[in-house]
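Most newcomers find our protein records easier to grasp once they have seen one. Each record describes a single protein and holds just a pair of labelled lines. A learned vocabulary of local backbone shapes supplies the integers on the structure line. Nothing more is needed to start thinking about how sequence determines fold. The record below serves as our worked example for the rest of this section.
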Amino acid sequence: MAKQITQTEFDKKQKELAYLKKEGREEIALKLQEARSHGDLSENAEYDEARNDQARLEEKIAQLEQEIDTVEVVSDDFFEHGVVHVGSVVEVDDNGEVVKVIIGSTSEDDDIISITDDSPVGAALIGKRAGDKIKVNLPSGEVTTMKVLSTEYKA
């Protein structure tokens, strides 16, 4: 199954890719040009650093292109129906402890834990609604039962 991301996340990736391909490459070209102007390339630390920056940039571009080509974009409309999916903030009762998680995205809120959609908890929550109970096989070997208390979509 392809990794699922929201349209919002997909648009961010495309915007970042376009930036890196144009402005990012232009910035590296200027760094390389400046470093070359300092003479002997065999002992030029600025040139070596610019080449390393170029390699990292091209690696990031290739990574983003691969991600964009292989993901499944999930409609934002899906979230309006209260179904847990990528991008959902889910409040769960984990044996009496109420925890908030965001699936497949990052949160700037310290009270919300970021988890991936292919983690044991993330995978178990996908497709669930408020009121559903799930059993999760944790990496430690333990099995825990959680109840979905609420779900909302954070664009």
Helices lie at 7-36, 45-70, 120-125. The longest helix spans residues 7-36. The two ends are 23 Å apart (CA to CA). DSSP finds three helices and seven strands in the chain.
